[in-house]
Structures are given as C-alpha cells and as structure tokens.
C-alpha cells in the first residue's frame, strides 16, 4: 500500500495519533506537501464526506476524520509556508455565520500566507458585522468568505450587502469559496471572484494586491 493511501486511510479511521508520524514519514520520503495534501489527506476527508452523505458514517466519525486531517496538515504547514516572507497586502478571511467548517478555510489562510499576504483569520461562524469591522480595522485588500453548506452560502451574499451598506464594497475585493460555491454563484451575488481551491485563492489574492 502506498504511503498516500495509508494517509487517506488514517484520515478515514480518524486516527489522529498515528497520522502525525505517518505524515512525517511521507515528508522524509521526499513527497511534496501538495502531493501529501491532495493525494493523501484530502482523499480521506472526501471519502468520509461521501460516506456521511450515504449515512454510512456519522458526525462523530467526521469529527475524528477532521481532527486527523488537521493533525496531518500541521506536519506539512512549515513546508507550505516556505518562501512566504514579504508581506504584500492584507486579506480578512472567515467562514460565514452558521457554518463551523474550517479545514478548507485554514488551507486558504495557509496558502495566502505562503504567498506573502498578511492574513487576518476571523475563524468560523463569523457575522457580517464582524467581517465589516475587520475590513475597516485592517484596511483589507481582500475579504475571503468560506461556506460549506448550501444553507450558509446565502450568508456570503449578506456580507456583500453589509459591505455595501457600510460604504466599503468598492474598496475591497470579495473572494468566495467552499464546496457548494461556483463561478455562477459568485457572479450571481456580485463577488469579485471565486476560487476552487486554496492554491487558486492565493494566486487570485496575490493578483489583487499586486
Ligand atoms: Co460537514 N457537511 N456538516 N462537518 N462536512 C459537509 C460540507 C457535507 C457536504 C457532507 C455530506 O453530506 N456529504 C454536508 C453539507 C451538505 C449541504 O450543505 N448540502 C455537511 C453537513 C450536512 C454537516 C452538518 C449539517 C451535519 C450535521 O450536524 N447533521 C454539520 C453542520 C455544522 C455547521 O457548520 N453548522 C456538519 C459538521 C461537520 C463537522 C463539524 C463534523 C466537520 C467539520 C470540522 C471542521 O471543519 N473543523 C465536517 C466535515 C469535516 C465535513 C466534510 C466531510 C469535509 C469538509 C472538509 O473539510 N473538506 C464535508 C464533505 C466534503 O466536503 N467532502 C462536509 C476538506 C477541505 C479541504 O475542503 O472545505 O471544500 P473544502 O475546501 C476546499 C475548497 O472548497 C476551497 O479550498 C479548499 C481546498 O483547497 N475553499 C475555498 C474553501 N473555502 C474557501 C474560501 C475561498 C476560496 C476557496 O475564498 C475565501
């Protein structure tokens, strides 16, 4: 069995004790952080998502898998941050109100930081008011709104409306992302861009602050 398959299986099993050691082993074998993420850890969390949708596993299993995924990401974090030294602009990031999913958002934060962008991470379940206040306080160039639920994606629209109401919509680029989000949705709600993954989010943010 390949080490990437083993990592995927450890995420599925929610084995957060063993995954640190195994991820380090993958790094020591010379695998890139991106390979470990895309073809190991992410495979596992996606399989758990599919099984959860079919009621084959339940919330505690998903929580354990998320914990294992985070433990694996912690090991490759330093590699992903390599080279991100000069600060080029500021991004305010958060998962929208009502939504507690943060693994993808954390990856976006990591990739943006590694692209040299200062990231102000507001965490999860972030209200429009908090987003607006942070954009003002940090004079942000980019605001990134993550949503993983079809019920909370509408909150992205509310944040854009709140930015307009506060008179700062045109001074900040709005980026949206998350599993149910696509370009059509971004266009519909008047976001400036949609990013499908963390690497694209970092690339786009870099372009905005250039
Ligand atoms: Co939840 N959950 N969950 N969950 N969960 C999903 C999203 C779901 C698709 C699972 C399923 O049914 N197949 C489903 C949503 C269905 C829908 O909305 N139609 C679901 C559900 C239903 C729920 C609950 C309602 C379950 C319940 O309680 N009955 C509940 C809601 C809680 C809440 O938020 N209020 C819930 C809870 C949870 C846990 C807490 C157990 C846990 C989250 C733990 C955590 O995040 N700390 C969890 C998890 C782990 C998942 C799945 C399995 C994995 C999500 C994930 O982390 N993926 C997920 C199924 C799935 O997506 N396959 C699922 C890996 C991550 C790297 O990908 O977040 O998509 P993702 O991020 C990607 C891109 O989307 C993009 O970059 C990342 C890749 O590089 N991206 C951005 C993300 N944000 C971005 C922002 C950007 C740009 C790009 O710009 C700003």
Walk me through the structure.
This protein is an alpha/beta fold and about 210 residues long. The protein has two domains: about 5-85, Methionine synthase domain (Methyltransferase, Methionine Synthase (B12-binding Domains), Chain A, domain 1), CATH 1.10.1240; about 90-210, Rossmann fold. The protein has nine helices and five strands; from the N terminus they run ααααβαβαβαβαβα. A five-stranded parallel β-sheet has the order 2-1-3-4-5, sandwiched between helices. The mean pLDDT is about 95. The structure holds CO-5-methoxybenzimidazolylcobamide (B1M). CO-5-methoxybenzimidazolylcobamide binds near residues 101 and 148.
């Amino acid at each position: 069995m390949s080490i990437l398959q083993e990592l995927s299986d450890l995420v599925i099993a929610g084995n957060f004790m063993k995954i640190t050691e195994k991820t380090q082993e993958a790094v020591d074998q010379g695998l890139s952080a991106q390979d470990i993420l895309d073809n190991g850890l992410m495979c596992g969390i996606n399989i758990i998502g599919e099984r959860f949708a079919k009621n084959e596993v339940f919330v505690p299993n998903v929580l354990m898998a998320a914990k294992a995924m985070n433990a694996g990401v912690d090991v490759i974090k330093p590699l992903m941050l390599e080279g991100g030294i000069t600060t080029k602009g500021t991004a305010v990031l958060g998962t929208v109100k009502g939504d507690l999913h943060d693994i993808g958002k954390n990856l976006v934060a990591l990739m943006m930081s590694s692209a040299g962008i200062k990231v102000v991470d507001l965490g999860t379940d972030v209200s429009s008011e908090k987003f607006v206040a942070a954009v003002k306080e940090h004079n942000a160039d980019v605001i990134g709104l993550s949503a993983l639920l079809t019920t909370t994606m509408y909150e992205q629209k509310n944040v854009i409306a709140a930015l307009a109401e506060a008179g700062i919509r045109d001074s900040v680029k709005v980026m949206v992302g998350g599993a149910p989000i696509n370009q059509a949705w971004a266009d519909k709600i008047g976001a400036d861009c949609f990013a499908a993954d963390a690497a694209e989010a970092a690339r786009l943010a870099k372009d905005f602050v250039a």
